[in-house]
C-alpha cells in the first residue's frame, strides 16, 4: 500500500526511480509478448488466452470490491452472467455489432451493481457474503424463467456467431478476438490502476481497514461503498460480454455458483488487493481446471478448495504477495552483501 | 381450498428439513459467531456415508447412529485441525476457508461416490399415516425427528453442566477460561453437534430430493433464510423460521412467482430480513461498541 499512499509529486529516491524504470520496462515487455502471442500459438490456445484476459478483467473487478474495499461478494458470477446475456441478446435478437455490446453490458452492470450495492450497505461481513451467495445461487433460475425466455432462450441458451476481423485484416477470428479483448483489457487495467492509486483507492482501503475512522475523516462511506459495488459489477459485466463473444454461447447453467467461487478463488490465489494478482489468478482459473480435468471430473473443484484453504494458511497475500516478498528478500540480501563486501 | 391446504402441509414437511439445517447453522453461530457456508455440504457428505453403510448391509438405524457419530467427529476435527489454526479474525479469510470447505466436500463426494443420483431409503413406512391424505409418513417422521432434536438440544443446554459450559464459552471466552472451561474444546463440541444435526437433516432430506452431491445447495439457502427469520442466535426461532420458510416457499411457488423461481423467494427473504430486522423474530439485537 505504500506505493499507493505516496503523493504523486514527492521526488523519488534514486533506488525507487530505478525500480520504477524497471517496472515500466517489464510492463512493456509483457505487453509486446501479449501482442505477439496469437501469432505464435494455435487458434485454440489463442482462444484460451482470450479467456485468460476475460477472467483478468472480471477478477480486477472483484478485487476492487472484495480486495480493496473489503466487501465480500460470493455472487459475482451473477454480474458476469448479466454481461454475457446482454451481449448475446443484443447480438442475437437485435443485430447489434459485437463491439457495441461491451459498453452496454458494462453500463447495465454498473447500474445493477450500484442498485444491489445500496441494500448491501447495511450488510457487513458474513451477512453480505450470504446475500451475494444467495444472488449467485439464484441467478441461473432467474435466467431460465419463462417470462424472459423469449430473449434468453431458456435452458437452451443462445448461440452467437464469432466475429471476423474487420478492415480486411488477415487474421483468424480467434486472433482478432484476442487482440480486441487485449485492447479492452489494457484500457480496463489502466482505468483500474488510476482509480486504485488515487483518492478513490485510498478511500476504499480506508473504509476496509478502519470504517469508523474513515467516516470520521470525512469519507462518504455509503457513496464509496455503493460506487465500488457498481464499478466492480461493471468490470465483471464487461468481462462477461467478452466471454460470451469468445465462447459464442450462453446458457443459464454456465453461470451457476461455481463461477462465482472460481472468481473468488482467482483473487485469493492471484493476491487480494493487487492489480497484477488479477492476471495471475486468471491464468490459474483458466488453465488449472484443464490440467486437473484429466485426473477426474471432481478434481478441478477439489484443487480449488485445497488452494483456497492452503493459500489462506500459507500465502494470504496470494502469488503477487509471494513474488513481492521474494523480491524484497532478494534485494535485501544483495544490499547486505554489498555492505559486507 | 384443498389444493391450498396441500401446499401448506407440503410446505410444513419441507420446512421440517429446513428447520434442522437451520438448527445446525444456529449451533455453529452460537459457538463461534460465524455463518457456516459448508454446513450443507457437510450434511450431504455424511448422508453419503450413511448410504455407503446401508449399502454394505448395515441396518438403517445402526447406519443412522453411526453416521451421526461420524459427523460429530468430522465437525470436531474440522474445528480442531482447520478452524482453530486460523489466527486471523478477518471475516474475508474465514469466509474463504468456509467456501474452500464447501468446494472440497462437494468434489470429494463426487469423486468417491460419482455424480449419479442415488435413491436413499426412508426409515418410515410407505404412504400416508393416520388416515389423512396430506402428508406421507416420511414427511411426518422427518418433522417428528426435527422436533425431537430440538427438544434434546434444549434439554442439553438447559440441564447439563456441559451445556452450561458451552454457553459460557460462547458468550465470554476469556472469563470461561479463567473458571477452568476448556474453551477450544467447547467450540469443537459446538462444531461436532452442528455437524451431527446436519447429518440428521441430510438423512431426512435425501429420501425426498434423492442423494447427489449438489442436493444441499438450495436447501442451505432456505435454511439460512429460516435461521435469519427466526433470529440467528435462537434455536427455537430457527425451527419456527424453517416451517415458515417451507410454507412460504410452497405457497408463493404455487400461486405467485411460479415453481421455477422458488429460490428467488429465499434470496428475497434473506436480503429482506437482513435489511428490515437483522435480529429476526426471536433473536437478540446485536450492539456494537465503537
How do you describe this structure in short?
The complex is a heterodimer of chains A (341) and B (290). Chain A has 15 helices and two strands. Chain A has helices at residues 2-5, 14-36, 43-68, 76-94, 98-120, 125-144, 149-152, 173-197, 199-209, 211-216, 221-247, 257-270, 275-293, 299-314, 318-340; strands at 158-159, 249-250.
Structural class of chain B: mainly alpha
Largest sheet entry of chain B: none
Strand percentage of chain A, roughly?
under 5%
CATH topology of chain B: ABC transporter involved in vitamin B12 uptake, BtuC
Tally of alpha and pi helices of chain B = 11
Average pLDDT of chain A: 84
Oligomer: heterodimer
Strand order of the largest sheet of chain A: 1-2
CATH classification, class level of chain B:
Mainly Alpha
* Alpha-beta content class of chain A: mainly alpha
Apparent shape of chain A: globular
Q: Helix coverage percent of residues of chain B?
A: over 70%
Roughly how many Å is the radius of gyration of chain B? 19 Å
Largest sheet of chain A: 2 strands, antiparallel
From the alpha carbons, calculate the radius of gyration of chain A and give it in angstroms: 21 Å
Report how far the terminal alpha carbons of chain B are from each other.
53 Å
Beta-strand content bin of chain B: under 5%
Count every helix of chain A, treating DSSP H or I runs of 4 or more residues as helices.
15
**Total domain count of chain B:** 1
Number of domains of chain A: 1
What does the secondary structure layout of this molecule look like, with pairings?
The complex is a heterodimer of chains A (341) and B (290).
Chain A: H1 2-5, H2 14-36, H3 43-68, H4 76-94, H5 98-120, H6 125-144, H7 149-152, E1 158-159, H8 173-197, H9 199-209, H10 211-216, H11 221-247, E2 249-250, H12 257-270, H13 275-293, H14 299-314, H15 318-340
Helix pairs in contact in A: 3-8, 3-11, 3-12, 3-13, 4-5, 4-6, 4-11, 5-11, 8-9, 8-11, 9-11, 12-13, 12-14, 12-15, 13-14, 13-15
Chain B: H1 2-32, H2 39-55, H3 60-82, H4 91-113, H5 137-159, H6 161-171, H7 173-178, H8 183-209, H9 216-230, H10 235-255, H11 262-276
Helix pairs in contact in B: 1-5, 1-8, 1-9, 1-10, 2-3, 2-4, 2-8, 2-9, 3-8, 5-6, 5-8, 6-8, 9-10, 9-11, 10-11
Amino acid at each position: 500500500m505504500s506505493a499507493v499512499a505516496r503523493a504523486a509529486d514527492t521526488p523519488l529516491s534514486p533506488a525507487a526511480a530505478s525500480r520504477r524504470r524497471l517496472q515500466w520496462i517489464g510492463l512493456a515487455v509483457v505487453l509486446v509478448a501479449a501482442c505477439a502471442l496469437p501469432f505464435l500459438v494455435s487458434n485454440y490456445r489463442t482462444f484460451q488466452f482470450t479467456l485468460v484476459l476475460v477472467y483478468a478483467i472480471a477478477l480486477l473487478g472483484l478485487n476492487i470490491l472484495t480486495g480493496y474495499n473489503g466487501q465480500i461478494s460470493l455472487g459475482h458470477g451473477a454480474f458476469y452472467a448479466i454481461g454475457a446475456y446482454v451481449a448475446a441478446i443484443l447480438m442475437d435478437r437485435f443485430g447489434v455489432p459485437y463491439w457495441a455490446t461491451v459498453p452496454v453490458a458494462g453500463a447495465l452492470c454498473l447500474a445493477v451493481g450500484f442498485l444491489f450495492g445500496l441494500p448491501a450497505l447495511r450488510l457487513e461481513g458474513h451477512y453480505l457474503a450470504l446475500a451475494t451467495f444467495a444472488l449467485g445461487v439464484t441467478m441461473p433460475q432467474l435466467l431460465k424463467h419463462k417470462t424472459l425466455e423469449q430473449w434468453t432462450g431458456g435452458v437452451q441458451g443462445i448461440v452467437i456467431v464469432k466475429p471476423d476481423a474487420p478492415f480486411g485484416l488477415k487474421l483468424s477470428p480467434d486472433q482478432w478476438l484476442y487482440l480486441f479483448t487485449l485492447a479492452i483489457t489494457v484500457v480496463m487495467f489502466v482505468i483500474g490502476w488510476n482509480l486504485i492509486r488515487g483518492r478513490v483507492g485510498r478511500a476504499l482501503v480506508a473504509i476496509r481497514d478502519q470504517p469508523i475512522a474513515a467516516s470520521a475523516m470525512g469519507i462518504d462511506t455509503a457513496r464509496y461503498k455503493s460506487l465500488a459495488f457498481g464499478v466492480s459489477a461493471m468490470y465483471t459485466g464487461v468481462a462477461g460480454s467478452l466471454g460470451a463473444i469468445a465462447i459464442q454461447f450462453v446458457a443459464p447453467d454456465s453461470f451457476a455458483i461455481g463461477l462465482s467461487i472460481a472468481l473468488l478463488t482467482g483473487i485469493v490465489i492471484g493476491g487480494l488487493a493487487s492489480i497484477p494478482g488479477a492476471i495471475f489468478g486468471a491464468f490459474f482459473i483458466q488453465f488449472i481446471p484443464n490440467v486437473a480435468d484429466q485426473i477426474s471430473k471432481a478434481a478441478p473443484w477439489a484443487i480449488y478448495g485445497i488452494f483456497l484453504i492452503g493459500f489462506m494458511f500459507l500465502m494470504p497475500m496470494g502469488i503477487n504477495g509471494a513474488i513481492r516478498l521474494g523480491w524484497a528478500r532478494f534485494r535485501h540480501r544483495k544490499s547486505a552483501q554489498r555492505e559486507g563486501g | 381450498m384443498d389444493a391450498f391446504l396441500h401446499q401448506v402441509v407440503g410446505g410444513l414437511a419441507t420446512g421440517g428439513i429446513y428447520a434442522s439445517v437451520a438448527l445446525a447453522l444456529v449451533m455453529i453461530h452460537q459457538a463461534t459467531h460465524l455463518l457456516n457456508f459448508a454446513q450443507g455440504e457437510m450434511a450431504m457428505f455424511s448422508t453419503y456415508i450413511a448410504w455407503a453403510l446401508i449399502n454394505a448391509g448395515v441396518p438403517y438405524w445402526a447406519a443412522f447412529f453411526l453416521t451421526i457419530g461420524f459427523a460429530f467427529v468430522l465437525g470436531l476435527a474440522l474445528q480442531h485441525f482447520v478452524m482453530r489454526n486460523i489466527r486471523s479474525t478477518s471475516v474475508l479469510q474465514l469466509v474463504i476457508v468456509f467456501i474452500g470447505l464447501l468446494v472440497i466436500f462437494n468434489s470429494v463426494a463426487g469423486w468417491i461416490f460419482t455424480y449419479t443420483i442415488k435413491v436413499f431409503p426412508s426409515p418410515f413406512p410407505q404412504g400416508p399415516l393416520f388416515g389423512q391424505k396430506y402428508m406421507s409418513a416420511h414427511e411426518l417422521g422427518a418433522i417428528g425427528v426435527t422436533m425431537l432434536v430440538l427438544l434434546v438440544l434444549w434439554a442439553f443446554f438447559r440441564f447439563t453442566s456441559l451445556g452450561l459450559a458451552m454457553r459460557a464459552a460462547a458468550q465470554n471466552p476469556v472469563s470461561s477460561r479463567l473458571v477452568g472451561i476448556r474453551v477450544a474444546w467447547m467450540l469443537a463440541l459446538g462444531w461436532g453437534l452442528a455437524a451431527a444435526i446436519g447429518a440428521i437433516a441430510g438423512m431426512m432430506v435425501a429420501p425426498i430430493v434423492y442423494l447427489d452431491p449438489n442436493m444441499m445447495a438450495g436447501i442451505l439457502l432456505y435454511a439460512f433464510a429460516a435461521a435469519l427469520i427466526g433470529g440467528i442466535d435462537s434455536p427455537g426461532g430457527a425451527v419456527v423460521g424453517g416451517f415458515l420458510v417451507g410454507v412460504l416457499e410452497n405457497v408463493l411457488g404455487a400461486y405467485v412467482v411460479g415453481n421455477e423461481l422458488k429460490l428467488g423467494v429465499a434470496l428475497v427473504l434473506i436480503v429482506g430480513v437482513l435489511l428490515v430486522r437483522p435480529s429476526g423474530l426471536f433473536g437478540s439485537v446485536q450492539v456494537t461498541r465503537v
